[in-house]
Amino acid sequence: MNSTHKSAGCLAFFMIFTGLSQFAVVADDDKVVRVFIFAGQSNMVGSDSKVEDIRRFPPFAGLENAQADVRFAYCIGRENKSRSDDWVDLQPVNHVVGPELSFARKVARNIDAPIAIIKCAAGGTHLGGDWNPDQPEGFEMYPLALDVIRSSLEMLDKQKIAYRIEGFMWHQGENDMFNEEYMANYGKNLKNFLASWRRDLKTPDLKFYIGELCTKTIWGMDLRPRMYAISQGQQAVTEADRLAEYIPTSHVGVEIGGGVGLHYHYGTLGQLEHGVNYADSYLRTIGESDTTAPRALQKWPYEKGSRIKLFVLAGHRNMEGERAFVQELKTLQGELLSDNHRIAYTYSIGGGYRKSVGWEPLGPAGYYDTFGPELSFGSTLDNKLDDNIAIAKFTHSGSQMNDWTPEGSMAKTRHLYPDFIAFIKDSVKQLQDKGHEVELTGIFYHVGENEMSMPSYRKNAAIWLQSTVTQSRQDLAAPELRWYVSQQPPTDHERVNTIDVTGQIASVASADRNLMHVKVFDLPDQPKQLVVDTAGVVHLGQVIAKKYLQATSR
Q1: Residue 310: Cβ-neighbour burial (10 angstroms; 0-12, 13-18, 19+)
Q2: ∠ CA(45), CA(414), CA(424), 5° rounding?
Q3: Could you give the 3-state DSSP secondary structure of residue 1?
Q4: How far apart are CA 63 and CA 59, in angstroms?
Q5: Taking a C-beta distance cutoff of 8 angstroms, is the pair 236, 21 a contact?
Q6: DSSP character string of 307-372
Q7: CA torsion, points 71, 75, 81, 87, in degrees to nearest 10?
Q8: Other C-beta atoms within 10 Å of 295: how many?
Q9: 46 vs 294: which has the higher pLDDT
Q10: If pLDDT is split at 50, 70 and 90, which confidence band does 132 have?
Q11: Contacts of 5 (CB under 8 A, 6+ apart)
């Protein structure tokens, strides 16, 4: 073999081994197709989502339409599979919504290179069995997915289209928790799974994005120990593998079902937000920063040495603002969209998924174009008080009330209480370090929405609340600290109506002169149980602010 042929042979081997098509080397990098693989079970399929519901969520408008600039190949389902058989335009399949739709749109807006998605997913499948690379069982998903990926890439080769495999998005694990062996070995099996794909696709540096199992679903509550065991396996792998990243998803939206409202699947909103999570992580991987403009105070709004009233907002889904969108706020109460530079605002939302950069002006700051009741809360106080006002917000919509207690639960990574107290202390200290006297005016906590729907959680909600309130006063060295505990109407269903959660919370409040029970039972009509829409979140903020004004005017 002469040197020219030898070099060409080595180059061909290199490209195959690294997942590059044989045509990639001759193309401008911005013309090389970035191929992303999406795989997993029902929450990767998009179960219980509806294409027609996309219009209900303004940040994602238009994703019901095909994305003609994104190639898509797929095999989706178990017994009855839907196959593309060739590359098609990216679009919803079988009228359901997968995370690839929002992922592709966000990535395409941030890179110049073309994008292709290969998806293979089926509900109710196991990593220990169906997806087992060595001994696939059941629906034998691993060899199926490998065949789908290889055949799709071969079509690109035949068309002499340059490509490279850019990332593997994986969301799976719920079904492994029902098999003791699979659950115990999930981390071990996942490590082997990643290694097998890198070997079989000849991509030793293939990056994996491992989606967290959502703790906001009913399984995150009644099967908490099992969900936690799977998450521990996932995190052990992503911590040890520099090319694997753990993608938080517990803060995304979850479908609201019939009966008590709790559900197993993300549904439409959660799928779209989950896709954005993957996109954000990938873009960070390649050094593309978030396109969100930084929010900074024009100047520090308080005179040096002045006294500041610090209001702490805390809670779960509706305090975070899961379904309150800035696009709808524009027509409802547009003045709240403007940053209020008179009020300094700091926050940690989604269990730390997004944090403020120091103190920002009060304004819309949620991920996915969402906002919480802090906007109308701050506006109501600003119009009535001459005092200096600052707001600190700590939320995690994927938490339950036992996560906020000093005791926590066996799911140690979900224990919020230490971080919550540290967040309050740090907020106070930051203001004091600027030379201010700080009055910790009160904690405004909206009780867990999911707790209103699951019997065992509803039964214990008031007990957990009292534990958190009592210990917080000790740890903050504020024995008279006021708590304003707001509650929306609890779920009205025969499964839970025998548990008087409202009466139990009222009983805790009646025994504590510094705990105000705020019944927000006059919400605007809501289309869903548990979650509150844009108008409802605005109303919630106004109600808790007025309760404070009434309590302090006596």
Answers
A1: buried
A2: 125
A3: coil
A4: 10
A5: no
A6: EEEEEEEEESHHHHTTB-BHHHHHHHHGGGGS-EEEEEEEEEETTTTEE-SSSEEES---GGGB--
A7: 30
A8: 15
A9: 46
A10: very high
A11: none
Q: If you average pLDDT over every residue of the chain, what do you get? A: 94
Residue 15 has pLDDT above 90, yes or no: no
Please, what are the domains in the chain?
A: 32-285 (3.40.50.1110), 307-552 (3.40.50.1110)
Say how far apart CA 96 and CA 221 lie, in whole Å: 26
- Amino acid making up residue 348: S
What's the full length of the chain, in residues?
Answer: 554
- Its pTM surpasses 0.70: yes
Render pLDDT for 49-92 as a digit per residue (tens, 0 to 9): 999 999 999 999 999 999 999 999 999 999 999 999 999 999 99
Q: Which residue has the tokens 């290694």?
A: 195
Q: How far apart are alpha carbons 230 and 413 in whole angstroms? A: 12
Instruction: Please list, in sequence order, all residues whose beta carbon lies within 8 angstroms of the beta carbon of residue 62, skipping any fewer than 6 positions away.
Output: none
Cα distances (angstroms) measured from residue 107 to each of 82, 284, 312, 489: 25, 11, 36, 40
For residue 103, give the 3-state DSSP assignment. Answer: helix
Closest CA relative to residue 28, chosen from 103, 102, 89, 112: 112
Summarize pLDDT for 469-491 with one digit per residue, the tens: 999 999 999 999 999 999 999 99
Q: What is residue 295's predicted lDDT score, i.e. its pLDDT?
A: 87
Mean pLDDT over 317-334 rounds to: 97
Q: Of 505, 504, 501, which is closest to residue 492 (Cα–Cα)?
A: 501
Please report the pLDDT score of residue 10 as a whole number.
Answer: 42
* Residue-level pLDDT at 435: 97
For the segment 282-299, what is each residue's pLDDT rounded down to a tens digit?
Answer: 999 999 876 566 789 999
1 pLDDT higher than 80: no
User: Using CA atoms, how far apart are residues 76 and 93, in angstroms rounded to an integer?
Assistant: 8
Torsion angle of C-alpha atoms 321, 324, 327, 329, degrees rounded to 10: -100
Is residue 14 over pLDDT 50? no
Q: Confidence band (pLDDT; 50, 70, 90) for 9?
A: very low
What single-letter amino acid sits at 471? Answer: Q
Instruction: List C-alpha distances in Å: 336 to 118, 292, 323, 510.
Output: 42, 19, 16, 35
Q: Is the dihedral of CA 373, 379, 384, 386 positive or negative?
A: positive
The C-alpha atoms of residue 483 and residue 466 are separated, in whole angstroms, by 10
Inter-axis angle of helices 186-200 and 141-158, nearest 10: 20
Is residue 100 within 8 Å of residue 90, measured between CB atoms? Answer: yes
Phi-psi region of 388 (alpha: psi -120 to 50; beta: other; left: phi over 0): beta
Under a CB-based contact definition with an 8 Å cutoff, are residues 351 and 251 in contact?
yes
Max Cα distance, the chain (Å):
96
Ramachandran sector of residue 119 (left: φ over 0; alpha: ψ -120 to 50; beta: rest) = beta
**What sign does the dihedral 458-459-462-464 (CA atoms) show?**
negative
Q: Which of 92, 103, 107 is nearest to 45 (CA)?
A: 92
